[in-house]
Specification:
With 177 residues, the protein is of the alpha+beta class. The chain has 4 helices and 5 strands. The protein has one domain. The two termini are 25 Å apart. One of its GO terms (cellular component) is mitochondrial inner membrane.
C-alpha cells in the first residue's frame, strides 16, 4: 500500500480506539478476520450457506445464493481457504460513518492471498493469470494456485448494539463473479 494509505488507516485505528473501542487492536482484529475468512470460504465452497446467517449480512447472503449455484465445481473448490494456507493479509480500506438515524459504524476491508489446490483451468475467467506454484520434485508434484479474496467486516458501535463484526462484502476475483 502507499504511505498515504498506510497513514490514513493508522489514523482511523487511532480514532476507533479513542471513540469506539478502547481495546481495539488491528493485530487481534486481523487474527479474527483470518479465522472468519477461513470458515466462511469453506462454507461457501461446501454450499452450506444456511450456516452463514450469523456471519454474513442478509444482502450478501442473497447474492451468494445466486452466484454459488452457478459456479462450476472447480471454482467452488477454489473458494476454500485453510487458515494455514493464507500467505498474506492486509487491510484495504477503513471507514467510520454514521447513518441517518445517528447509528455509528466501522468498516474494515481485508485482503487475503491464499494457496489452494483446486483443479482450475489455465485460462481463468476474466483473462487474468492466476499464479501457479509447484511443490515437491518430479514424482510428487503438487500444483497450487495463489488466489485473492476481499472481505469487508462491519460493526455497529451504537450504544446497545451487538458487539459483533459482520461480513458485508465478499469478493473472490475471477472465481465468484
Amino acid at each position: 500500500t502507499s504511505p498515504i494509505a498506510w497513514l490514513r488507516t493508522r489514523f482511523y485505528y487511532l480514532l476507533i480506539r479513542l471513540y469506539f473501542d478502547h481495546e481495539f487492536s488491528i493485530e487481534e482484529f486481523t487474527r479474527g478476520a483470518k479465522q472468519a475468512f477461513s470458515v466462511v470460504s469453506k462454507l461457501l465452497s461446501q454450499r452450506k450457506l444456511d450456516l452463514l446467517e450469523e456471519l454474513v449480512s442478509a444482502e450478501v447472503l442473497q447474492v451468494l445464493k445466486e452466484k454459488i449455484s452457478l459456479l462450476p465445481d472447480s471454482h467452488r473448490d477454489a473458494l476454500a481457504a485453510d487458515i494455514d494456507a493464507i500467505m498474506y493479509t492486509t487491510e484495504g480500506d477503513v471507514r467510520i460513518y454514521y447513518d441517518d438515524d445517528g447509528r455509528k459504524f466501522v468498516s474494515i476491508l481485508m485482503c487475503f492471498w491464499y494457496l489452494n489446490g483446486a483443479n482450475l483451468p489455465d485460462d481463468v475467467p476474466g483473462e487474468a493469470k492466476v499464479f501457479q506454484i509447484v511443490f515437491g520434485d518430479e514424482n510428487t508434484k503438487e500444483k497450487k494456485h495463489l488466489l485473492t479474496a476481499n472481505y469487508e467486516f462491519q460493526r455497529e458501535f451504537t450504544e446497545g448494539a451487538k458487539p459483533d463484526w459482520t461480513i458485508t462484502r465478499i469478493e473472490h476475483p475471477r472465481l465468484l463473479e
